[in-house]
Amino acid sequence: MSVQTASPQFSTASTKQDRYPTRLRNTPTTLWQDRQEAVVKGRHLDGPLTREQLDGFERDGFLFEPDFLKPVELDALNAELASLLARPEFLDRDFAITEAGSRKIRSLFAVHQLSERFARLANDARLMGRARQIVGGDVYVHQSRINYKPGFHGKGFDWHSDFETWHAEDGMPEMHAVSASLVLTDNHHFNGPLMLIPGSQKCFVHCLGETPDDNHKQSLKQQEFGVPSHAALRELIERNGIQAPTGAAGGLLMFDCNTLHGSNANMSPDPRSNAFFVYNRRDNACGQPFGAKRPRPSFLAHQPDEAGTPRSGQH
User: Is residue 273 domain-resident?
Assistant: First the structure.
């Protein structure tokens, strides 16, 4: 099929050139456009990833490494996660996201500013080095969070590209970001593991619907805007299928900012939790959003000069 860029039938608050139009008012003439940047940009840089691993990331848009965390690291991080989730003063803060219709916390954002342990992890050379090789330059933490999906009650999350949201609502100009998800509990097919569409990182799927004001207050619980069409998802999945990396706690999943992913509800008694860090190339810092009236709060989109040190829960 043709993959020409859709007509610019959209509203944008940014004065920069919009290379990836989305949140369109009218149905685009094509399902997606080709990505305009390379997926792996730092093959010339020294780092922990091998040539074969970089090739796999280029092809699939993600890379899973089992046993990344040592048992002692894993135990300490899970203890810290439990401590943070148990703090009642977080419940009514904007950076604490609860399950829809519940007071149970599902995500704590800006976790590297809430916890010294998670701050050290966010700035760990093992993660920074991998990110640098993938995006091709020095990086900073664009976003951090811990996710908790309790047994039986943890809700799923619809298919989406993170970059689509970061571009439309945070003003991220181009695809020079990568996510690192550290698996803190055993991940199996029944407790809602992350699912990814291999190869989808090479296609930017245009999404319909102008962004409502303060969309993040709803989208972080259940996303309605920035969701790809069923037609686009069907074609991409028919081409390359769906993969859900599973395994014991301690693994590392790195995936491109534009890889389409989502998750089912947790239907098992086993909780699923992870620590999540987004690394953006320093020269790709966010400006005015391309598909929203104003940027989202800073706990969702940090700037390069923001220190990754704890602030005792103050934002």
Answer: yes
Residue 231: partners with Cβ closer than 8 Å, 6 or more residues away:
31
CB 149 within 8 A of CB 266: yes
What's the predicted TM-score (pTM) here? Answer: 0.88
159-204 residue pLDDT tens: 999 999 999 999 999 999 999 999 999 988 888 899 999 999 999 9
Say if strands 105-109 and 139-149 run parallel, antiparallel, or are unpaired: antiparallel
Residue 290 located in a structural domain: no
Closest CA to 64 of 252, 259, 261: 252
CB atoms within 10 A of CB 234: 12
Which residue, 66, 63, 68, 64, is CA-closest to 201?
63
Sheet holding 105-109, edge to edge: 62-65, 252-256, 177-183, 272-281, 139-149, 105-109, 96-98
